[in-house]
Amino acid sequence: MLPGPCGHCLQKPPAQSQTHSLYRYHGPVRDAVLEWKLQGHDAAVSWLVQAAMPRLRELITQDALLLPVPMPLSRMRIRGQHHAANLCRWLAADIGCGWDWRLLRRIGEQQRQSALSGSARRKNLNKAFALAADYKQRWSDISSTPASVWVIDDVLTTGSTLHFAAKASLKLGVEVNVLSLARTSYRG
Predict the structure, then answer these.
(1) What pTM, to 2 d.p., does this model score?
(2) Could you tell me where the beta strands, DSSP code E, fall in 33-174?
(3) pLDDT of residue 88
């Protein structure tokens, strides 16, 4: 039997229905993610995604829509790629579901999360995400209404980013779930 929700989740339920992470952010997985994010080498991360594909096909159905956690434009310009969007593209191609990188948007520029405490992360991202101004039109342009939405990110630390991105996605009126490639052992 699986354990139930933690005390914090019982007091303040998350926006998403489900939260899944494929790997623990440690050792070779951490090395692969850092090499991808800092050096632009995606071979190891691509292998990790392929290795997890049987589990992913059980979780994510073909009638789902994947939304990457939006990256601030300033960081996208520096890095030259959008990691969560790359994950969505890879997953959608293998699963056969849709994805859209323009539906969920980042509002303004926030401080980098990596230097903040858990409570500061939540405050920093409280109003950082929204659906695109034309989301109703984009949603109606999708050939068939998705049964669920999956908000995708590379690394889950405190869960604040995915929580607030999922919260903004609830306006779509379907079940919202979140998935990260890796999850830290963060406590705080």
Answers:
(1) 0.87
(2) 64-68, 98-99, 104-106, 129-131, 148-156
(3) 96
Helices 83-95 & 43-51 angle (0-180, nearest 10): 40
Label residue 90 exposed, middle or buried (CB < 10 Å: 0-12, 13-18, 19+): buried
Q: Is 96 left (phi over 0), alpha (psi -120 to 50) or beta?
A: left
What are the phi and psi torsion angles at 93 (to 5°)? -65, -40
CA distance 98 to 77: 25
Residue 153 contacts residue 129 (beta carbons within 8 Å): no
Please give the share of the chain, as a percent, with pLDDT higher than 70: 81
For residue 48, which amino acid is it?
A: L
Q: Is residue 1 very low, low, confident or very high in pLDDT (cuts 50, 70, 90)?
A: very low
CATH architecture of 16-183: 3-Layer(aba) Sandwich (3.40)
Percent of the chain at pLDDT > 90 equals 58
Residue extents of the structural domains in the chain = 16-183
